[in-house]
Amino acid sequence: MKTRATIGILLIFTLTILVVSGAFTQSGVKEKTLLYKGKYIPDIATFLQIGQASPAGNSWDGKDVYFSSSMSGATQVYRINQQGWPYQLTTFEDGIDFFTLCWGSDMAIVGASIGGSEQSQLYLMDTKTGRTEQLTRFEDIQFGSVVWNIDDRSIFYRSNEENGRDFHIYQMDITTGKARKVFGDTTGVHGYLSIADLSQNGIYMIVYLFTSNVNNDLFLLNLETGEHQKLNEDEGDVTYYSPTLMPDNKTIWLTCNDNEDGITRLAKMKVGSPKVNFIDDGWIDPKWEIDGLSISRDYKYMAAQVNEDGYVRLKLREIETLKEIPTPPMDGMISLGGFDKNGNIIFSFNGPTRAPDVWRWNPNTEELKQLTFSIYAGIDRELFVEPKLIHYKSFDGLEIPAFLYLPPNYTEGQPVPFIVNAHGGPEGQFQPAFQRNIQYFLLNGYGILAPNPRGSSGYGRDYLNMDNYKNRKQSLQDYKAGVEYLIENKYTAPGMIAIRGGSYGGYVVMGMITEYPDLFAAAVDEVGIVNFKTFLENTADYRRHLRESEYGPLTDPEFLKEISPIHKAHLIKTPLLVVHGVNDPRVPIGEARQVIQAVKDNGGVVDSLIFPDEGHGASKRVNIIAEYRKQVEFFDRLLKK
């Protein structure tokens, strides 16, 4: 006769076998077991527990490094002290939006908003204890672009508090909380202003004025007198990024694309002259764009993030001698965090099969040290898959770069279910960084195609502008050509192909299933645009002008109607999943509600997932898990018949 204790042990043993075998997930939801190379593949929720860490700042003396991570379920900031322990500094329920360390490193400004609203408020933090004091309390105002004054007694920031539309530049005394406007509107310059750089002596500030996502100007502001001057002169769409005013207050290092081929390259300018002098000395291959440029606090070193066909590599040099110095011996996606006085460089590193972590590199001693260690949730990294960079021709012969992911057990010539990934932007770029959900789908037997169609960044100004305004739908044809490439090469077959995308990528999804109703067997629209007129009317005031310059103005309603998928909803045959956040300030929730109702009215198949506590995409882990569980079930049901 079995005792109660014996029965209890047997029950525990049985449940343990079920959990280990994958018969039950951590949430108790039963699902099929996946097996690859003798190893069980957990469910999507486990994959989404894989960690990540990105640099948030570091002290100049090299003693402390700060990083951001969502390991707690929302993005928070942590401090790594010399003992190597990550001390959590923030505990905001919805996570943080940004973190700006002061010069002395004992204080920081934290930006945080509620429920995905992006209406970031400012908090003053003691970086030793994490104690915070709220500096601003305006639900309908956004604060950002924070820079500390050189005395650490005041901060500069941008805010749209005057009219909700234009961003002006302000200065706040952190001891009294009193603020004053230092640039914008009354100076004759208004619009989307942002702080680019503060001079070494604290007298001068370089300010961006954005007139679109592909065009901006630079202004030099004298903070003592209030006088300002425009630094650049150009025609057409030109971008100026990462400007640093050197200690002579005359020389500016920056990146710019005002050249014949429109490639963003290293350049110098002189205050008082609008001429841009491009530096072509062999340090960086001129065919690659520079994604970012950083200069050390002592103005000794320069670092460039070079975009090589979507892969981001780091290049380092001394400024005085222009001598190239050693870079970390790592191949993948590198993003610079900062420098310290010892010559160390803090950066993040990740790749298709490696989660993001923070590292330290000393180019003088060539010492490399990993500072954070992201968890892999018990999943063997050796199972992860690298993509292949391919190029295929579109309808007009244009070559489209794309990343092709194949499942690890793929057999040549044997079609598998495929998901086409549409990136946001439209001037974004899919880059082969670590993506947890992609690795899950690959191990679940799916292929992924991630194109960078015309209109994507990273390939020069001409490629970037190829889908503007009247050419909007030509980028959709690039996606169609990608599907045709997959079928022609027998990677997949009709009836086994889905498309998904977020934000502008959501528009791509809706555009594809209305322009080409028979192409896809499933579609996921995440926070996407379906009606350009209502989108422009209802998006946040500060975004409207920038978006009109890209998509077309409200004064051209016929064109906006012609490119809006909502007016072709009756053509939708593809089963559709719509995901949106109620608090989205970029693509308002009305876009989702319109298309859900339209598909229902036309007898189509539509499901939805609406988050009441999210904005432009899910950010809380519990919601991210809910979304991807829904996607997995949706794709498995429709593509694996």
Show unreliable segments: 1-33
Number of strand elements: 38
Overall residue-averaged pLDDT value: 91
The largest pleated sheet is described as: 8 strands, mixed
C-alpha Rg (nearest Å): 25 Å
Return the CATH topology of the largest domain: Rossmann fold
By DSSP (H or I, 4+ residues per run), the number of helices equals 11
The neighbouring-strand order within the major sheet is 31-32-34-33-35-36-37-38
Q: How many domain regions?
A: 5
CATH homology-level superfamily of the largest domain: Alpha/Beta hydrolase fold, catalytic domain
Q: By helix and strand content, what is the structural category?
A: alpha+beta
Approximate strand percentage: 25-35%
Shape verdict: globular
Determine the N-to-C terminus distance.
48 Å
CATH class of the largest domain: Alpha Beta
Helix content range = 10-25%
- Gross CATH architecture of the largest domain: 3-Layer(aba) Sandwich
Q: How would you briefly describe this protein structure?
A:
It is built from 11 helices and 38 strands. The protein is an alpha+beta fold and about 650 residues long.
